[in-house]
Each structure stands twice: as C-alpha cells, then as structure tokens.
Amino acid sequence: MTERLIVIGGDAAGMATASQARRRRGRDDLEIVAFERGHFTSYSACGIPYWISGVVPDRDLLIARSPQVHRESYDIDVRLRHEVVGIDLDRREVLARDLDGGGEVRERFDTLMYATGAVPVEPHWARTDAAGVFGVQTLDDGSALREWLEAEPAPRRAVVIGGGYIGVEMAEALVLRGLEVTLVEQSEQPMSSVDPDMAQLVAEAMRGLGITVRTGVTVTGLTETDGRVSAVVTPEGSLPADVVVLGLGVRPNTALAEAAGLPLGPTGGIRVDRRMRVVGIPGVWAAGDCVETLHRVSGQPVNIPLGTHANKQGRVAGINIGGGYATFAGVIGTAVTKVCDLEVGRTGLRERDAAAAGFEFVSVITESTNRAGYYPGARTMSVKLIAERFSGRLLGAQIVGFSEAAKRIDTLAVALWNGMTVEDMTALDLGYAPPYSPVWDPVLIAARKAVDALAETSR
Amino acid sequence: MTERLIVIGGDAAGMATASQARRRRGRDDLEIVAFERGHFTSYSACGIPYWISGVVPDRDLLIARSPQVHRESYDIDVRLRHEVVGIDLDRREVLARDLDGGGEVRERFDTLMYATGAVPVEPHWARTDAAGVFGVQTLDDGSALREWLEAEPAPRRAVVIGGGYIGVEMAEALVLRGLEVTLVEQSEQPMSSVDPDMAQLVAEAMRGLGITVRTGVTVTGLTETDGRVSAVVTPEGSLPADVVVLGLGVRPNTALAEAAGLPLGPTGGIRVDRRMRVVGIPGVWAAGDCVETLHRVSGQPVNIPLGTHANKQGRVAGINIGGGYATFAGVIGTAVTKVCDLEVGRTGLRERDAAAAGFEFVSVITESTNRAGYYPGARTMSVKLIAERFSGRLLGAQIVGFSEAAKRIDTLAVALWNGMTVEDMTALDLGYAPPYSPVWDPVLIAARKAVDALAETSR
Hints:
Two copies of one chain form a homodimer.
Chain A: E1 3-8, H1 12-24, E2 30-36, H2 48-53, H3 67-74, E3 77-80, E4 82-88, E5 93-98, E6 104-108, E7 111-114, E8 118-120, E9 133-134, H4 139-150, E10 157-161, H5 165-176, E11 180-185, H6 196-208, E12 212-215, E13 221-225, E14 228-234, E15 237-240, E16 243-246, E17 250-252, H7 255-260, E18 284-286, E19 293-294, E20 301-302, H8 307-321, E21 335-339, E22 342-348, H9 351-356, E23 361-369, E24 380-388, E25 394-401, H10 409-417, H11 422-425, H12 442-457
Parallel strand pairs in A: 1-2, 1-7, 2-3, 7-18, 9-16, 10-11, 10-16, 11-12
Antiparallel strand pairs in A: 4-5, 5-6, 8-17, 13-14, 14-15, 19-20, 21-22, 22-25, 23-24, 24-25
Helix pairs in contact in A: 1-8
GO molecular function, one term (chains A, B): oxidoreductase activity
Pfam family, one (chains A, B): Pyr_redox_2
Cofactor (chains A, B): FAD
C-alpha cells in the first residue's frame, strides 16, 4: 500500500505541508488526503477585514490556492466540508464527518498532520442564537458577516468587542462601510500588543476616524429583539447594536488533539519539536495556530496565531515529511497593522513581557520622521526600544507612525533576531536618502537614545 | 592656554565632530574653531536635487544647523568663506584664507579635524569657463545652478553627464522643472551601483519619465557659444544643451592633507583608525567623504561619500575628542534612491565586487509584490540576493520596486551586517499584514530561492 499522509485542516499550515511534501514525493510514493470543514482552502484570513470594508473587492481574491488547484496540480485529495471528529492513533485512522451529506468516513494514515488552527475565545454570553453576532476567524465567518451587512434592513450601528488586531481592523472596516462603530475593550487601551504608551496613539487615531473607543469596559451580555441582536450590555450601560463583531482573541483548536492524547504545553498549544513533530507521538505532526513554539527572546513557549508562522511551519513539516530536513527556528513576535493611515509595528517583548521573563530593562521612546524633515510628506514616527540593563541587548521594539513606519519594524526584528545590542545598532549602515529617511534613521536615533538611557542606569 | 580644536570643513562630518566634542567639554576646557570655505554649515547635500526640482520649496530647509546656532548654542567659532590652505603639523598651525576679504590668518591647534569632504571628478574638458556648466556637490553649487535655471533666457535643454545617484536624481529634477533632459552614461546602464540586470529597470523608468538615456557614450568635450555652453560633444554626435550638469562622481578632497603629509590609502582617502584618528599622526583626526573606511563584507578599504557615514564618523570622532570612547564599525554600502515612483535600494557587494573580493557566489532575482497580491496598490518588487557558495552567507542585495521597496533594503542590510546565511534568513520573523506584505515577504521569498540556487551548485 502506498504511504498515506492525512492532513486535518486545509488552510495555511495544512496545505503548505501537503504541497511541500508533494514537491518531494510523487503520487506513487505518497498519497495525500486533506480534510477541511469549511468551504475554502489556503485563504488569507488576515485579508478578511479588507474584504469586509470593500478595499478588497472580491472574496475569491483572498483564496491563494483553490481546492481544484490542490487537486489537479498537486494531486492532493481535498475533501471540503469534512470535519475530522476522531483520531485513533492505535488503528492509525481518522473519522471524518461530511457536514453536508451527514455521512462519516474512516480513513487510514501513516503520517498525520494536525493543522486545525484556532477557535475564537467565546465568553458564555457570546454563545447566542441571536442573528447578527459574528466572529471573523474563517472565510465562512467573513461571508456570513458580509451577507448580514448587505441584507435589509441594513445594519447602522456596529459594536466590535475586543481591541486586538482583528477588532481594530474590523472597526476600521465597518467605519469604511459607513456604519457607526463602537469598539469595546476590557483593558486600558486597544492594541495591547504594544505598550500602553504606544497604544494610546492608536486609540487616538481610531477616535480620529470617528470610532467610539470604550476602554476599561467588560461586556456582560447581549440583548436580542425578535431573534436579532439589538444591544451589547456592559456595567456602564447598554450599547445599541445592529451587528456585533467578536474579536476577543483565539485559542489553539485542540479538542480533537486532546481526545487523542496529543501533548499540550503551558500555552494550550500542541507541543512540537523543531521539525514540527508532535512530541512523543511518532508519525504525527502539527503546525500553525494550534501549536506552541519557542519565543527566541523570552525562551518561553508561546502561541502566536499568524499566517506567516503557519506557512513557515507547514513548509518545514512538509519538507521533513517529504524526506528533507528543515527546522522551525521559533518566533520573536513581529507583527504589523494599520488603522487608516496610522501604521503600527512591534517585535520582541513588551515591557510587561520583559518583566515576566525576568529581565531588567530600560525603555525609551523617540520621535523622529519617516523622511528628511524638509522633504514633503515628512511625518512623525515614534519608535520605542526596550533593552536589557547592563548588556544593552535589544529585547523589543514598537513603532507607531505614518507612511513607511510599520515595515521599518523588520529592521529592528532582524537586529533582535541576531541578538544585537543597542550600542551595536547605532553603527548599522541603513539606507539614507531624503525621501526615505532623515540622515539619522529613526531606528538609529532610537538606538542612540537607548544607549544614553543605559548609561544613566549604570551610574 | 585652553586646548583648541580646529575643524576644517563645516558640513556633516566636521560639525558633528564639533558639536559632539562640545557636548562633553565646555568652553573653558576646549575652544573650537571651524573653517568652512562655503556660505553654509551642516546642510543636506543629498537634498539638493529635490530643491532644484522644486519638491523642496526653500533652500534654507536644507540647512540642518546654521552658523548662528553653532555659534550661539554650541559656542563654536564658525568662520564661513574661509578656506584652509595650509597645515603645519610641526608648528600645530593652519593657514586660512578669507575668500571674501582676501586676508590670511594663522590659527594654532592642539587637535585637528580634517573634514574637507569630496571634490567632483572633472575630466579636462569639464574645466571650462563657459557659463551653464554645473556640479551639484555643495549648496553653493546648487544655488548657482538654480539661478541659471531661473534666469532669462530660460534653459530648455539639459544634458546630465554621469548616471550615478546624483546624475539620476538631477535628471529627474530637471524633468520635473520642465526641461528636455538627456542623461549620458559611459557604461552599459545608469545606476551602476546595482548590477546591470537591476539597473536596466532603472533605465526603463527614466525613459518612462521622458528622459533620453544614452548609455555606452563617453563625453569628449563641450561646445560654447558666446561664453555659454551650447552642446555636449560625444563620438556619436553633439547633444545641444542650454545647461550641463556634471555627475561624474567625486573623490576624496585630500590635496591639503597630502601636502601636510597625512597618509592616504589605496582608495585615495585618508587612512584613519577605528576611532577616526589619522593613522600615525597624533592629534589629527579625519572623517566624512575624505576618508577611507572598512567594507565589512569585502574586508577591503572603501571610500563611500554619503552623509549618513559622515555624520556617524563625525559623532565618533567628537565623542573621542570629547574624552569618551567610540569606534566606527565600517560600512556595508547600503544606499537608497528613487526615480519618480521607482525605488532602488542596495547593500553589500554587487556581483563584480564579490568576484573582485575573491568570493564564489550564486545570485538570484525574484519578483514578488510589496503588498498581498490581492491588496489594492500591490506592485512588483524585484529582489536580488548574492550569497557565498557553500557557506550561503549573504554578500549583497538589491531591490528595485515601487512603494515601500527602497527601505526594505534595511532588513537585508541588518541580515548582512550580522553575517546571516540565506538559509537562516528564510526563518526570519518579519512583519506580515496584507497592506504591507504577502504572507511570504519578498525578502523571505528571495532567501528561499537563494537556498535552492545554492543546492543546485553543490551538486
């Protein structure tokens, strides 16, 4: 019998695994079956807010590779709308349910890739039958929301619950569609992936867009009227809503893994080794939002659900399953987003992460500009650096600014990846021309200020 | 007597030295005199093309710090229009000529900073009295050119000689002013700071702007009529010109240094140590376009005239003169520019440099996009990587593309600075969000392709 790989989950991690394995091993050598409970494969979940807003005009543009392409060009047996409901490690079988037809099939495997992604965090009150309440985690979720926004009566007032990336991006998307939008965030500031001093700039930008930002507010329930959501309940009063978007974060989708006895780590993600093998379970691999990985700065395991990691991890697993050798090197928590024309980038540890990891540190914020000050369009860029005390090693960085701000975080991410000190960073040979940078790049200015701050603390 | 620092040259390197030294040592401890033969201090020479074009509306915007500020806030005795014409190392004196008054003064020094910058490369035919021929090396040069462009009869046809950064930037500036522009370049392509395959994209963009680009053409002379330049003579015929801009590159301005016996290296630049002390000459320092420095990839000395290096070197020298400790770490040749909306970035070695340095290497070019392919405004970005054979170490990188292309070179520059291999680079945690990057950043895609190319060569 031909060796058989079964992939559970047909998005980034699963399909990257399948296609990399196929590149190295032909049909006669490896049979590949992929189960996906949704209607789509290999799509950009990160792109959903931009399709909701209309910036991206067509849903199908978000699909990187259709099931047809996987089937025809990669010879992968993709089974859509099939949810795997059981894994039997002894018999080397999965049990999959056809969500449309209702039947169940058992399929044997030699090798298993567990790539089920993440599921939304849902407080008890979010488990409602009221119409008009949406997550935006899958393309199916996004499709449902878009239909609701386009149906009559057209929703006028939106409440977005949760101010993380997806909440902030969805709030902007809904404003762009012309809705009145309130964002409710439990903590002090939205965008808590950056420190509060930087997040404040994001909150201001959101308010500038006309979004009502309510911070320090915990949602306690939803009100429905005639089967439709009508308000979001908080201790500070009710917020009328014709549509509610949940952006409370996600957690690894591990129910099936737990049932089968796969090991979970402290983050709740599946434990894998450097090659993406599930620890202690021969022949079983995992990748993407459902696994935990090494944070290279804290040295701790983390679960960071993001398409770019899922793709890289899937590629690593696929190369290994295909008989090659590859390892996943871990992450440093780099991320970028935007709110209208305000750009946000972050990498490494926030102050609270650095403290939790046991570091003593200094942090500095500098304001400079994205271009030479005299060049038209020059705008303020705030750069925050967190550096370890004494050693001066960069621990984390955050940027908030306008044009060409967000991706400047990559410069800092590569410095961080390589363990550079802020002193070393002042010497970096970065590109300079007036349309792109002051003669001292904002990154260099920040490094210089961090060096000065370190000198203060060592006195 | 108070110790005395004399600075020769009042632009980036000289004034950065002076102000850093002043930050650490007050007036009673160190007297600072700076001689500048021009009318300005601390200005952005790199900004001149943008003032010529009108993009930057006012010349004074290019001046980072006026002589008044240097005098009043930093207590530096700035003497404009004073050209130092002699250095007497034994008597510890300089001889300076007042270019307006005509007198000469002798001034003693304890410490000397030589920061005379660069002088244009001028073939014999460029030494002309004909009006209408301009370099654009100093702000005085730029002022003279701008006056010519604004005088009657208004020049209509411009010829720019030399297709380096300044030539390309000036050609664009003159087109933006409405002139008919021809760029004449001796080699195969303009923008030879990148390899010909990448430079070709720049040449196409220039032609798209309406610039006539003549490559492989060597200028042999100028024609003048009634004391004004009227044509540029080449073996392929005469090019009519009402204004000629020389962009043939620069060389270290070392005449005075040579006369005083300062040591020059193989690049023609002054030899300095890591702290910016002139090698073997106690009490004498040098920084900026007139010195040579270490190229960290080739291991060879180079002379790279660029404001960002001049500023960094001046800062290092000033810290040391001020009693602190700092070293200049060398350069890797990072540079960025633009032609209209086409952006160009480069770092490290070109193919020819890598070969000259003795490396065997592979090079790859990848085409991807600056944003997720489905995100509006996504445009092609070409990334070229040059990696050492066997080791896979990155040796150089070049990017040509549109929005957010040029400064992406910094990501590669930091990787190069840290000696990363292309294999290591495929793992980098770079920012991903649809408005800023495909899920595989162009840098990662290029690294993956380079890894594949290395695998081919090791077979």
